[in-house]
Design goal:
Layout lengths: L14 E4 L5 H12 L3 E6 L2 H13 L4 E5 L5 H11 L4 E4 L18 H29 L2 E8 H4 L6 H21 L4 E8 L5 H9 L1 H8 L14 H7 L11 E4 L8
Parallel strand pairs: 1-2, 1-4, 2-3, 4-5, 5-6, 6-7
Helix pairs in contact: 1-9, 3-4, 4-6, 7-8
């Protein structure tokens, strides 16, 4: 895997919030943004998780602060903004409900399973973006990046509602990009394939044959890791991304190419 040699000034001095960054993909983005010079707010539902990631960042003599909030709760997000203040960069990363991800056919599910997926993968994106966007517009500079899924780009069996919520987040991002481009704000998405972290990592470590089976679907010959998308996240949230907006970029090992 290629190593970023020196991005220490890529987004230097920018303030960033990464939701759901107490682990996995969000953690990787938060760390890479700190390495690229940003002052990073690490959001999670649990303070100990956020503090652990901040400690990792601070161990590299970089800047990060923990902030606890349920991004599906409007009042909690307003309180979070009172703590963080205005931001330059917002990464809507939170995406798997606490109660887990039901891998079932649609007809086996009901609203009690749909609602958490829709709240976190769509409503929370609207909620957090609406809270921080006015400050970006006022400052005439901002970056909004939402982490989505190939389940929303191409459709996946037994991920129907999750994919629908991610597809809606992509549609929201495209429309918002058209609205705020002249205000100096870009809005993009990164779409992921299978990522080896959290419960998925435990399952694959316990069953190497399953990992090999999944890897066959990817032209690069392996499933993804959280570090795979972090450099692109930094690029899209930098000055270099000024003319990139309204786009969905797959980081999926070639699983479902964008045309």
């Amino acid at each position: 895997m290629a190593t970023i040699r020196d991005w220490s000034n890529f987004i230097a001095g920018r303030s960033a919030l990464v939701t759901g960054s107490g682990g996995g993909v969000g953690r990787a983005i938060a760390i890479q943004m700190a390495r690229a010079g940003a002052h990073v707010w690490v959001n999670d539902l649990h303070l100990d998780r956020a503090e652990k990631v901040c400690a990792e960042i601070e161990a590299e003599r970089l800047t990060a602060w923990p902030v606890v909030a349920d991004v599906t709760d409007r009042d909690a997000v307003i309180a979070m903004q009172a703590t963080t203040g205005a931001l330059d960069i917002l990464v809507n990363n939170a995406g798997i409900p606490v109660e887990g991800f039901p891998i079932k056919s649609f007809v086996e599910t009901g609203p009690e399973e749909w609602d958490p997926l829709i709240r976190l993968n769509l409503a929370a994106v609207l909620n957090v973006t609406r809270t921080y966007l006015p400050g970006m517009i006022e400052n005439r500079w901002g970056r909004v990046l939402t982490i989505v899924s190939d389940a929303g780009r191409r459709g996946e069996r037994k991920q129907v509602v999750y994919g629908a919520a991610k597809a809606a987040a992509m549609g929201f991002s495209r429309g918002l990009a058209a609205e705020v481009g002249r205000d100096g704000v870009t809005v993009n998405c990164i779409a992921l394939g299978t990522m080896k972290h959290g419960q998925m990592a435990m399952a694959l470590d316990a069953d190497p044959a399953l990992e090999a089976k999944l890897a066959r679907s990817y032209p690069v010959g392996r499933v993804g890791t959280p570090a795979d998308l972090a450099p692109l996240a930094v690029l899209l949230c930098s000055d270099a991304g000024e003319w990139i907006t309204g786009q969905v970029y797959p980081v999926d090992g070639g699983y479902a190419p964008a045309l």
